[in-house]
Write a structure and sequence with these properties.
The protein is built from 4 helices and no strands. The chain has 97 residues and is an all-alpha fold. The protein has one domain.
C-alpha cells in the first residue's frame, strides 16, 4: 500500500510539473500521439492481414472446387457456367494442379 501511495504521489507530481511546463506538456502530448498512431497502424496492418488471409482462403477453396469438378468430368465451359468463374481463370487453375 505504501508503494502504491508513493507511485501515485509521483504520478501526481509529474502531472503537476507537466501542467506548469508547456514544453514538457507538448513533448508528452507528442509522445502520446506517436504511441496512439503506432497502435492504430498496427491495428490497421493486422486487419489488412486478416482480410488478405480470408481472401486467399476463399481463392484456394474456389480452386479446389474447380479441380474437383474437373476431376469428375466437368469441362471448363461447364465449370464456368456453374461457378461464374472466367474460363481463362479456370484454365490457369487447372494447369497449376
Amino acid at each position: 500500500a505504501m508503494e502504491q501511495d508513493e507511485t501515485l504521489q509521483k504520478a501526481m507530481q509529474n502531472w503537476d510539473n507537466m501542467s506548469y511546463n508547456k514544453e514538457f506538456r507538448r513533448a508528452y502530448e507528442a509522445r502520446e500521439k506517436l504511441l496512439l498512431d503506432e497502435k492504430a497502424a498496427v491495428a490497421h496492418a493486422e486487419q489488412k492481414g486478416r482480410e488478405q488471409g480470408l481472401e486467399e482462403g476463399r481463392e484456394e477453396e474456389r480452386a479446389q472446387m474447380i479441380r474437383k469438378m474437373s476431376s469428375r468430368g466437368a469441362t471448363p465451359e461447364e465449370i464456368a457456367d456453374l461457378t461464374g468463374v472466367e474460363i481463362a481463370e479456370i484454365h490457369r487453375l487447372l494447369k497449376r494442379s
